[in-house]
Amino acid sequence: MHTTFKYYIKTSKFDKMVNEEDIKNALSALDAQLILNYRQIGLKFAIDYTMLMRRHKGICTSKVKATSIYYKLLTNTQEELLIN
After folding, report:
1. Long-range pairs for 48-55 at CB < 8 Å and ≥24 separation?
2. N or C end: fewer C-beta atoms under 10 angstroms in the chain?
């Protein structure tokens, strides 16, 4: 007999989508601090502090920007193939 679960347990940090406006506000709050405290700002804006730290240091970017870069690379590659 199969059992069904009543509750869905979120096990991934990717289950929660973050509002881009909240990230911009958190980044501006970080810029206003003399001593950076990623964990405190992350809790204040309900954002994962590691993602906030990566965005602030420029290691990663928003999903929209990454998708734009990816499609641009695909377009450039296809144009190069057509030229050759």
Report:
1. 48/13, 48/18, 51/13, 51/18, 52/23, 52/26, 52/27, 55/23, 55/27
2. N
What are the pLDDT digits (tens) for 56-83?
888 887 777 777 877 777 676 555 555 6
pTM of the predicted model as reported, rounded to 2 decimal places: 0.58
Q: Indicate the domain borders of the chain.
A: 17-83
- List, for residues 11-26, the tens digit of each pLDDT value: 555 555 678 888 899 9
- Contact status, residue 18 vs residue 50, Cβ threshold 8 Å: no
Torsion, CA 69, CA 29, CA 52, CA 41, rounded to 10:
-160
SS (H, E, C) 25-62: HHHHHHHHCCCCCHHHHHHHHCCCHHHHHHHHHCCCCC
DSSP, res 72? H
